[in-house]
Design goal:
The structure is a single chain. The protein has helices spanning 9-12, 35-55, 73-83, 85-96, 107-120, 126-154, 167-170, 187-205; strands spanning 2-3, 19-25, 61-66, 100-103, 160-165, 179-184. By secondary structure, the chain is α/β, with parallel strands linked by helices. Strands 1-6-2-5-3-4 form a 6-stranded parallel sheet, with helices on both faces. The longest helix is centred in the last third of the chain and has 29 residues, at 126-154. The N and C termini lie far apart (40 Å).
Length: 206
């Protein structure tokens, strides 16, 4: 796994011929969020856009893989624009440069996965929680395998791909050894994580 700061032009030559995957943590805007959070999110996506341009010294992005969507083309972009306009901006720019967008999700898997995740948030008894967790885990594993299959099938030899996915889910993926993974994590991502820790830490104290 490679951090962005470890790459320069001479080193980039060592990645020639390898499959490369640039991983970006998906950070969502929150409805009615405080201005300071919105500022952090916008700063993060500005930094991500800049780092993507720099990391492409190792290979121009040809394939884009984004979580949450199982549709293609304009239908996928319309959905993404309602969820996170900043992601859509980055994806559209890369599409204009010749990249192709692939939906990561399967409707038959993602629907139940989302439903079981929502159920976990509202159950109160241990017995029900245990049973719901079993179903959630089953579909979570199926989803991760689906994502791995999409990437492995569509990322060709020597190509570079962009993966946009929540970091806590991305770390569960076990990529094949011939895929070189690059982490695009600007310092502004740590600022957002710190915002959440301080926010929820303060609420817990109260």
């Amino acid at each position: 796994m490679v951090e962005l700061g470890q790459i320069d032009r001479p080193d980039a030559e060592s990645f020639a011929g390898k499959r490369k995957l640039y991983c970006v943590a998906n950070v969502y805007p929150i409805e009615d969020a405080p201005d300071d959070y919105n500022d952090l999110v916008n700063k993060y996506w500005d930094d991500v856009a800049q780092q993507i341009e720099k990391i492409e010294v190792a290979g121009k992005i040809k394939k884009i893989f984004c979580e949450l969507i199982y549709l293609q083309g304009d239908a996928a972009l319309n959905i993404l624009s309602k969820i996170n306009e900043r992601i859509t901006e980055i994806i559209k720019k890369k599409l204009d440069e010749g990249s192709t967008l692939f939906p990561l999700e399967s409707k038959e898997i993602f629907g139940p996965f989302t439903d079981w995740a929502n159920c976990l948030r509202v159950v109160f008894t241990k017995e029900v929680f245990t049973k719901v967790l079993e179903f959630y885990t089953e579909f979570s594993n199926k989803r991760l395998q689906q994502i791995l299959n999409v990437i492995d099938t569509n990322l060709s030899e020597a190509e570079a791909g962009l993966l946009i996915m929540k970091d806590e889910d991305r770390v569960k993926l076990q990529f094949t050894r011939d895929i070189e993974v690059f982490l695009v994590t600007p310092p502004s991502y740590d600022d957002i994580m710190r915002w959440f820790r301080e926010r929820f830490g303060k609420q817990s104290a109260e």
